[in-house]
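Appendix B. Extra example for self-study. Work through it before the problem class; the solution is given directly after the inputs so you can check yourself.
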Amino acid sequence: MSAGPEAVLETQGLTASYGDFQALFGIDLHVRRGETVAIIGANGAGKSTFLRSVVGQLPSAREQVSFEGEPIGHLPAHEIVRRGIALVPEGRLLFPSLSVEENLRMGAYGRRAGPWGIGRVHELFPVLAERRATPGTALSGGEQQMCAIGRALMSNPVLLLCDELSLGLAPVIIRQIYAVLPTIVAEGTTVVVVEQDINQALAVADRVYCFQEGRVSLQGRPEDVSREDVTRAYFGV
Amino acid sequence: MEWLDAIIQGILLGGLYALFATGLSLIFGVMRLVNIAHGDLIVLAAFLGLAMVNGTGVHPLLSLIVTVPVMAAIGYALQRGILNLTLGRDILPPLLVTFGLSIIIQNVLLEVFSADTQRLKAGALETASIAIGDQIAIGWFPLIVFLAALGVIAGLQLMLFRTRLGMAFRATSDDHRTAGLMGIDNRHVFALAMALALGVVALAGTFMAIRTNFSPAIGPARLLYAFEAVIIGGLGSLWGTLAGGVILGVAQAIGAKFHPGGQILAGHVAFLIVLVLRPNGLFPRTRDR
Amino acid sequence: MSEGSAAYRVERGTRASRYGALVAVAGLAVLISLPFWGGRADMRTIVEIAYYLALAQLWNLLAGYAGLVSVGQQAFLGLGGYALFVFAMNAGVHPIAAIPLAGIAAALFAVPTAFIVFRLRGAYFAIGTWVVAEVYMLSFAQVSALGGGSGMSLPAAVVKGIAQGRMWRESAIYWTGLAIAVGAIALVYLLLRSRHGLALTAIRDSEAASGSLGVDNFRTKIWVYIVAAFGTGMVGALVFLTKLRISPEAGFNVVDWTANVIFIVVIGGIGTIEGPIVGVIVFFVLRELLADFGSWYLIVLGGIAVLMMLRAPQGVWGLIAERFDLRFFPVQRRLVFDPASFSFVADADKEGKPEP
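Solution. Structure tokens for the complete assembly:
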């Protein structure tokens, strides 16, 4: 399948390793402008590794990742972020010695022009305005996730990568957080969500990729893939 | 009265030690780096000041206009060119590389300036003092050094908590990988922290050179004073570092009263006592990870 | 043992280690006989090489295996030196016999020292050990019975008591030096091959992981620290028996007894027994070459050590071992596959049978 000129992100034969352990074996994936793409897969399938490779936290070869038509595989994280990719990392990773507001402002460090600013983020998550002066890590898990999303938005990314937004959160909180995705997409942001929660992922995605043991085991539109396909691709049985 | 005088002189001396220690404290805070060459960089700054004063005849305090930016530039280059390569999970590379640099700096200074003791002459400022009663006199120069220490630490605190760069320092200190996701270039931020630290070192080295005799060999002792002030005060707290410097200065002044050779020993012993009783220092903030 | 499992042997010896042992024994025999045919200057140089080799092995044991980067080993060297003078002059102990006693004295001082410096970790431990060494130096400078700041000399009568005649005196010191160097290598080798060796390697490779695996890091480290102090104290006694004069400045000198030693280990290769041996050779060759250039010698040495740390942290020996797959001191157990005694059938047949 050709990605075409509208591809924002494209990986070709992306590989990644932790020392001797190879985690990704040639991932071909593309994301078109304005799309929401979900990546699902079991624990250890390589989903988070994929995101970390895309943002440059793990090394990859120059041509393996391209963003807006340019190869970025060789760039360090801070340069990739400045080009317009933001990651909401697994486990939120707020800065503990910074307040909620400082955490948000930190997101704007390599800022690009765009609709998102502290005011818009506060509109999206009013609780962050109320608790602006508390240390980031004093927030509840759901609030921390909101702060992490807000922090990523502050850079006005072209492409927002979300790693396991639902991890460790109560279902009602997960629904609250997923409810803001349409607002983010409506600003023209392209979104990739990595999820273990298949239902949540299929509900928001235009297209879905399933990873299994470091390879793409299934891809397609949610309405075109059957439950059985997904189960087989997910568990490899 | 004699004891009160000793304590006052000790507090003022503590200001100089706090200046020695501030740079060490800052770079530990930002990048968990312990720079064994720190004391030798203080002495390098003193010799740069000496070369400036001897070469141009300016007042030592005026030479700071040149030595502060020069040392800052050296700091940036040192961090960017060498020390950034040593940072990682293993503690050996930064320790051994900075230890090697310490020996190199000492011996280069020895080759260039010889082993002779030197002093920066600051004219009337060296002896001017304010008399309080009959027995106590506060020297203008030690007072200026102490106020400079207060000013530097207050300034750094403002920088850390009020500026974008300060926020980047704190974020990098918390988690440098995630800081990278914010668009922060860690190599650059670390180099800026070292530049700032060596800017303060230039100030400290020049003050030291006016206050006492110095030679290429005295760097390690300054490192130990700086280290002791940082540990006494508690890691990651700049005001704690000031308190640590003052405690060290007072201990040395009291030690000197007891015994002419007891000054430095008393400072070390005070440090060891704090270490045994309060291993995390008196005002700890940063956790050593 | 069953036939099938003979396909794999756990082995520690290597071909290089067996040939190496032969060469080492032959070389040692030549060295032992040197007083009967060599010059006095050669003997002096070899004693110096021997004590630097011993110091390097001991520092490598601390930093390379136990993760204890000490910049304060000069504390125990000076203590050992002073202890020798006290035992030999005040207690009338034979100077050679006073050497192990000096080691014990240094080890006794290491106990309270450890109590203090073990409160600091990593880089802070390093500087903490340095502070303690300074405290020892400044304290010894205050003791007028030990000559205060200017130190003291070993009386001629004590020196003459070592042995009859200069040749035998010098030979006695020479053989003691060889014994200490060989002893230090043997100590580290045997320690690493013992049960503690696995714990030490585990500490070196991952502090956090070995803690969670139940290796008692703290106790192992304390023991290593005390053992290293014992060895360093003995070396200190030997050093000042050859110099005949000690002062706080000389005894607790950070450049002589720690900086040089660190450079030797870093250049040679940290975390191996062969590394310090190679490092000592490089050190003395460089010193010979740069003898006329004063402090440039230390600048070059420091520069090489910094470069090695940045570009080849495994050291000269690491580069050689990588290139030729050599190991003279096999401290790690290697699983050796022997195709000759391997057979699927045999394995399948013996499956489930208990080992005798």
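Self-check: The two ends of chain B are 46 Å apart (CA to CA). If your reasoning did not lead you there, revisit section 3.
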